[in-house]
Write a structure and sequence with these properties.
22 helices, three-stranded antiparallel beta sheet, mainly alpha, 411 residues
Length: 411
């Protein structure tokens, strides 16, 4: 099962000393010198802190003093509500105002960027996010502005500020769509989908958002070209999201297309159940899914919900092609005890309003004829009509906006 565990290198059991040493090595690339020193002292209580760490701390303090001095006029300006009120949506006006009235020029503005990055490397993400926001409204370089927005997005995620992170993700998405570099678009869309996983499996509306984003043609193309493994997260989101079931057929089509390049127990489960109608195979894959989800950083909190909905898929699919179902056999396919399976079926019949009854003596479920009335048939046929219309309209609007605004400027 380690072959499917994307976090196997992290989850593997290592001696605690090796883990702490790895932390020290990782912290060596940041400004969190005090944190690294504390870990070193825990590892070596009788030893002095290495000279290299002491020198690094001195260098960090010198950087702090340097960036503080450069950015101080602008930081002072931004800390005054009365001064900030003078700023307008016109970037050129703001720059002229800062230079003529407050003697703040490009050096101080660029200093604010370095000052924000310094605090980010120190682990002070709230300060970094605030400074990067202000920098993004003042800088004149599009590349620099985009870099600052990515930094702010990272800070939002690290602070677990999911609402703000979603807003910044939307801004990044708009900027990427207006980029004229096709290779750069592909790379940045791939990054955005990976970073967005933190949001999708933590925000209350994340399960809808991941389906909406990943099924957009440009992002689906990026996933199929550059990140097949993201199919796992899209598949889980669809299985546990009852409001997006209409997209399941589209997902199955993509899974079949990408089988040559990527499979895991989650995609195999859907393939066995909805393509091959192999219920025994689906049962085996469902057991593997439990292990995979419990070991996946993003999915570990929703494995129980996934298994519950997966069992419902098995039950519904099996009911469509059988009139009389043996509960004992069904319990085996659902990987449940006989009594638990019977109770589960009773609840499914009630909640799903299935035309079925249970013969307790014979230990069977007798399915009634399931006919869709005219209204239900129309609803079934037009389930994806609104989504397809939205995609067409959105694609058209993006082309029009790209022609009108070829370069994104500002947040």
């Amino acid at each position: 099962m380690a072959a499917y565990d994307l976090t196997s290198q992290v989850k593997a059991v290592y001696p605690e000393r090796e883990i702490l040493e790895a932390k020290i090595e990782l912290l060596g690339k940041t400004n969190m010198v005090d944190f690294a020193m504390d870990i070193y002292k825990n590892l070596n209580p009788e030893s002095e802190v290495p000279e290299g760490m002491a020198q690094k701390k001195q260098q960090v303090m010198e950087k702090l003093k340097k960036y503080q001095e450069i950015a101080a006029p602008l930081v002072h300006f931004l800390s005054s509500p009365d001064h900030v009120k003078q700023l307008q949506s016109d970037r050129a006006y703001n720059l002229q105002l800062l230079e003529t009235e407050f003697q703040i020029g490009s050096e101080q503005i660029e200093g604010l960027y370095h000052y924000a990055k310094f605090w980010f490397d120190c682990g002070n993400y709230s300060a970094a996010a605030e400074l990067l926001y202000h920098y993004g409204t003042l800088c004149t370089s599009t590349d620099r502005m985009v870099s600052a927005l990515w930094g702010k997005f990272a800070a939002d995620i690290l602070m677990q500020d999911w609402e703000t992170a979603i807003e910044d993700m939307g801004r990044l998405k708009d900027i990427i769509d207006k980029n004229t570099d096709a290779l750069g678009q592909l790379q940045q869309r791939t990054w955005l989908m990976h970073w967005a996983l933190f949001i999708f499996f933590n925000h209350e509306n994340g399960r809808n958002s991941i389906v909406d984003l990943f099924f957009q043609d440009r992002y689906m193309n990026a996933m199929q070209t550059n990140a097949h493994h993201l199919l796992r997260y899209l598949a889980v989101a669809l299985v546990i999201n009852k409001h997006k079931r209409s997209m399941l057929k589209e997902l199955i089509r993509v899974i079949q297309q990408e089988q040559h390049g990527y499979t895991d127990p989650i995609t195999d489960f859907l393939d066995c159940l909805f393509v091959k109608y192999d219920f025994d195979g689906a049962q085996m894959k469902l057991r593997e899914c439990e292990v995979v989800l419990q070991n996946d950083f993003f999915l570990t909190n929703c494995w129980e919900e996934f298994v519950e909905n997966a069992r419902l898929f098995i039950f519904e699919t099996y009911c469509r092609i059988h009139k009389c179902i043996d509960i004992k056999m069904l319990a085996e396919k659902l990987n449940m005890e006989h009594e638990a399976a019977e109770l589960w079926v009773v609840n499914m019949i009630r909640t799903a309003r299935l035309q079925a009854k249970i013969d307790s003596k014979a230990g069977t479920v007798i399915m009634g004829t399931q006919h869709l009335n005219l209204y239900e048939q129309i609803i079934e046929k037009t389930k994806q009509l609104s989504y397809r219309s939205y995609k067409l309209t959105n694609s058209y609007m993006q082309v029009v906006q790209a022609q009108q605004n070829p370069v994104a400027v500002g947040y």
